[in-house]
Amino acid sequence: MPISLRAALMAAALVTAFPALAEPITLETAIERAIASQPRLAAAEARVDAAEARTRQANVGPNPQVSLEVEDFAGSGPFRGLDSTQTTLALSQQLEIGGQRSARRSVAASEREVAALALLRERIDLVRDVELAFAELAAATDQATLARDNAAQAASLANTARILVEAGRDPPLRQLRAEAALAEARAAEVETFSLMLAARRNLAVLVGSDDPELTAAVGTPPQPRPTNDPAFIGIDERLAEAERRVAAARVTLAQSAAVPDVTVSGGLRRFNDGRDTALVAGVSLPIPIRDRNRGGIEAARAEQTAAEFQAERVRAEARRDRAQAQMLVEAAETRLAALEGPGLAQAEEAVRLAQIGYNAGRFSLLELLDAQGALTTARRSIIEARLDRARAIAALNRAYAREEN
User: Fold this and answer.
1) What domains, with CATH codes, occur in the chain?
2) Is the pTM of this model over 0.85?
3) Which of 173, 196, 251, 401 could serve as a FRET partner for 64 with CA atoms 20 to 30 Å apart?
4) What phi and psi values does residue 229 have, to the nearest 5 degrees?
5) What is the mean pLDDT of the chain?
6) pLDDT reading at 220 higher than 90
7) What is the radius of gyration, based on Cα positions, of the chain?
8) CA 365, CA 115: separation in Å to the nearest integer?
């Protein structure tokens, strides 16, 4: 299919798509639907459930053991047959005397805290991702609308140039220039339309929607969170600190595993020859001359050291990210205010005057195209600045996110 025909069809699709859009979705609704439908949150919640189950299991001690022993049978002499058989029924119990159970509980509780914080971070990241996708869809829609309007203006201008050339007022070169501008405008229309469709799909995936015409509702832009709390601790820092506590608890668990457990037993023995009975008791204790879990302890301590350095690194990066996000928001707001100032109104007035002058024969086509190009550049810059501001605010809100997310 020729590129001009393809561009025309895509442009027509863009024009007809706008009136048929589904009900726009607000940012708040998009966040609610994403939280309710995202598998990434469901997976994190399942990991929290698993950590809860491990916490309950960590409080369970070893099971008792029952044993039955039969002695002194099927031998020779007086032990022939079953007359001299001795039968012992005993119950034994392993005793954890090295603090293993409390160490297990500590590890499990710390892991449960890590899982809960990981779920919270996943939720915070999802909110940030939805905010970004929402802002990108709004910007892509604005760009597509601008490109559609520019294509319509270029088509009108090309038609005017054709009429003026046929009337002998302008040379044929002016008509060729107008038609080239129209081709560029239609190509930009097709490109922005494709980018808008991709942005729709991205937001639809996040909110769990199959609607191919999902659109972002126009509303109040997101506002940055208050950032005047010098003692604020972010979710990444809290998670890193929780992981450090897990590593410390595992050191204690490894040390407790070096203490041998004692097994006590007691039972009843029956002598067949005289039908007499007697109690039996016993104690067993491993001799720790080979395995003292030294390797396990050393590995746990090394993991603890790594977790401490990781927590220190996360704290430094979090402080940097918060400061950087704050500066980016301020810079984006300053840039947007400058772009939305008198310069935009002046560019719009320049186009109006250039159009009047061109229709009256006082301005050339090139002067009108230059004025229109300047206005388009200004409007695109504003759209990009709004998107940059939204991105900066999303990053800042992520850096200062709290439990209410």
Assistant:
1) 38-61+96-258+293-399 (1.20.1600.10)
2) no
3) 251
4) -105, 100
5) 85
6) no
7) 38
8) 65
